[in-house]
Amino acid sequence: MLGLELVSRDAVARFDLGGVLFELVPGKVGTDGNARLCLRVADMNVARSELEEKGVQVSVPEDKGSGRLAFFRDRDGNEIALWQYATVKR
Q1: CATH 3.40.50.150 is held by the domain 6-85
Q2: Cys-Cys with 61: which of 8, 23, 57, 68 at CB 3.0–4.6 Å?
Q3: Which helix (H) or strand (E) holds 5?
C-alpha cells in the first residue's frame, strides 16, 4: 500500500527505508498497534558497546531466531530497537 520493500516477515513486518529498518509490530488485542524505530546493526556487540560508552543503557540482546534484538531509550523516553540479522550458515 505504501510502496515499501518488505525485507522480512515473521511476527513482525520489516521494511528497509534507505538503510533504516522500519518495523510494523502487531499490537495486543484491543490496542491500535505499534510501530517503532529499529536500527539494523552489523554487529550487536559493537553497537551496544558504542552506545554504552556514551552512557546509554542498552538491554541484553534477545535471540529471535532470525536475528538478535536489543532496546534502548532516547532522551525523551522513546524506545529504539537494534536489530542484527542472524548469519546464514552454509
Answers
A1: no
A2: 68
A3: none
